[in-house]
User: What shape does this take?
Amino acid sequence: MKRYLLASILSIVLVASSFGVQAQDYSKYGIGADIPGACSYKSIDAKDYSGRTLNIITHAVPVMGEPTALHAKQFEELTGAKVNVVHVPFGDLFQRIMIPFQTGQAAYDVLFYGSLWIGDLHAYLEPVPAAYQQVSGMKDVTVNYKGVATWGDTMVQYPVDGDRHYLKYRTDIFDNPKMKERYKKETGKTLKVPTTWEEYNEIAKYFSGWDWDGDKELNYGSAEVAKRDDLMFSAFISRVAPYAKHPDVKGGFFFDLETMKPLVNTPGWVRGLELFVAAQKSFPPGGNNFGLGDEIFSFGGGQTLMSYSWDDAFIQAMQSGSRIRNKVAAAPLPGALEVWNRKTGKWDKFKTPNLAPYITWGWTSAVSKLSTNKDMAFDYLCFFSNEANTAHDLQIGRFGVNPFRKAHFDAKFWIEKLGWEEKIAKTYVKTLSDMDLSKNRVFDLRVPGVGQFMSSLAAGVSKALAGQETPQKALDGVAEEWRQIVDRIGKEKVREAYKNVVALEDNLR
Amino acid sequence: MLKYKHFFLLPGLIVLVAIIIFPLLFTIRVSFSSWDVVKPGLDWLGGKNYERLFVDLRFWEALFKLSLMAAGSVLIQYLIGFSLALLVWRDVIMKRFIRVLFLVPMMTTPVIMTVIWRTILHESLGPANDIVRMFGFEHLTWLSTSGMAMFSVILVEVWQWTPFMFLLLLAGLLSLPKEPYMAAAIDGAGPLRTFFSVTFPLMAPISAGAILIRLIEASKMMETVYVLTSGGPGTATETASYYIYIRGLRDYQIGYAASLSFTYLIVMIISLTIIAKVMTRKIIRD
Assistant: This one.
C-alpha cells in the first residue's frame, strides 16, 4: 500500500513538474528565451485576470500598432484577460485620447502616443508605481528616456521606445577612394562625413543629379522630411539646434524662460531655415513634399547619399535583402561653427562644431488616471516592454521600437541578431549612446498646446521652403503666432511646463 | 389642437433635430467658448473667436484657394461629363459597358484613390514622370510647386467626380423630348446647330442643378488635399475644410474651429445661394 502511495505521489510530482516545464517554454511567442524578472512571461503567466477587460488605444498598424496588438494577444493568453486594442491614425490620435479625458470618461486604460504630448496629458495620467520603476527593464532605461517619461519629479509615462535624430550616410561613397579623389579634384575639398550643416549641404549638392552608385538611375544628395504636416517640424529642429542652442547660454531654446519671449525668429533659427531652404537643391524630385515614409524609401532604397531623422531609414537600409545593406553608417547630426548667443546678441565662433543632439519625440505609453484596471494596465506595459519582448521588437523595423535601454547599446546584439557588420554596429551604438552623454541636448517643446506651437512652426517653415516668404519673415510670423498662443493658454501655465524642458536641457535634473 | 396624424411627423422631426439642428446649435454654442487643450468645456468667451477669425488671413486665403479649385474642377467636370454623356447618349457599340466604365472612379473610395494618385504623381518613383520622360520632357513637379500642386488636386478631383456629372447629365439627356429634335431636323439644322439651339438650352436646368450639387460637394474638398499635398507646398493648396481640420483636430482648438466652421457654413450658404439665383435667372431669361 505504502509503495502504491509513494508511486502515486511520485507520478503526480513528475506530471506536475513536466507541466511546469511546458508552461515555461514560451518560444511559441517568437522570443528567443524568456528573461527572468517581474514582467517576464513566467511572472505574467502566474497572474490571473480572467473576467477582466483591458482597453488600449494605440497607433495604426504597423508602427507601434502591431507590437501593441501582438503583446496584447500574448497577454490575453497568459493572464486570461480580455484585451481590446483600438488602432487610430496618427492625425486623430491626440483628439481620440483627449476628448474622453476632458469629458471624464474612462474610455481607455492604456494609451500609446507621442511622448511630446506629456505637457497636455500629464494631469490625466497615473504615475508609474514605485514597484514598476524598480524592475530590471526600467532600471536599465537610459537617462534621456527616463527624462522624457518624467513630468516634474514624477514618472507618468512608461518608456517603450527611444527616439532621436541622427545622420545616416552611404559608406560605399564616403569611403570610396575614387569618389574622394573626384570630389577633391572638383571641389578642392576633402570628402568626409559632414560635421556642420554647411558641409552637409555642400556634399549633398555635389552628389545630386548623377548616377554615383552605377545602377543607371539618378542619385541625389539628401532626403529630408519636408512635407508640412508630416513631422517636418522635427527635421527643422534638428537643423536649427546647433545654431540656436548655445552650450553656455541657459534658460531656453524655444522661449526665453524668463520673459517667455519666443526665440524662433532669432538669427540662429533663421540661419537653420536658410540652410534648410538651400538644401532643397539636393533633394530628389519632389523631395520638398517628402513625408517620413518617402524619406525612409529614398535613403533606405539607395536613392540618396545622406539623410537624418528617426531610425527607420537606417533600419530599412540594413534589412536583409536591401541592396545597400552594410553600405550605410550612422553619425551624430551635423553641428555649427557659429552659434547665436542671445545673451550677447552676437554670433560666437567655435573651433570644433557645436553639436546639439535633438532627443526628438517618440512613442511612449501611459495608464489613465481614470482607469479601474490600473494593476492590469501597468502589468501589460511592463510585459510589453520586458527584455525578451523588446529584444524581439527591436529586430522588426516596422514596429517602430528603437533602442532605449543601456543593454541596447551593445554592438553584439546588432551583429549577432541582425547580422550587421561589426564596424556599422559599433558606429551605430556609439552614435546613439553618445547622445545620452551630451550636455547640450535639445528636447521637444513639452508644454500645453504643443500641437498648436508645432503646427504654426511647420506652416511658417513650409512657406519659406515653398518660396512664399523669406526665412526671416516666415519665422517672424511664427513668433507672432507663438506669442498669441502663449497669451491664449496663459503665460504662467506655459512657463511652468517649459521649466521642465529647460531643466532637462540645462542638465539640472 | 394636435391631431393624431401630426404624430406621424414625429420620427422625421426627431431625426431632423438629432442629426441636423442639435449639432448645428451645439457648434454655434461651442464657437462662443474657448474650448481647447487646456480649457475643456463650454465657458463663455463672447465674440473673441470671431474677432480672431476676421483677421486670420490664412483662413480667408484658404477660402479663396478653395473657390479657385472648386470652380475650376467643377467647370472641367461639367465639360468632360457633358461630352461623355453626349458620346453614349446615341447608339454606340458596347453602350452599357462604356456607361458602367465611366462610373467606376465615382464608386471608388476617395482616400484610397488619392493615395494611388499620390503614388502615380510621386516625382521620384511614380509612373507619371516616367511617361513624361518617355516623351523627352523634363520631369514635372506635380506636387512640389504651387501651381502644379493645385493642378494635381484639380486633376484628381476631376477624375473622381466627373462620372457623377456624367450620370446626371446623361439622365437629363435621356429624358429630353424628341419633338424639338424633329423640328430642328425638318428645319435642316446640323449637329452643331442642334446642340447649341436645342440640346444645350433644354439641358440648362439640369446643368445648373448638376453644377450646384457638385459645387456644394467640392466646397467641402478635404480628402484629396489631406492625402495628396497636406495643403502644401507652403499653404498653396490649403482649403478651408483642411484648415479647419488642422485647427480643430490637430491643434485641438475646438472653440476656434467651431467658429471657423460656422463662418464657413454662412459664407457657403450665401455664395451658393447667389450662384443658384444667378443661374436660375439666366435660365428663365433665356
User: Anything to note?
Assistant: Chain A touches chain B at residues 91-92, 94-95, 98, 102-103, 120, 227-230, 284-289, 291, 294, 297-298, 303, 448-449, 451-452, 455, 459, 462-463, 465-469, 488-490, 493 (CB under 8 Å). Residues 2-23 of chain A form the longest helix (22 residues).
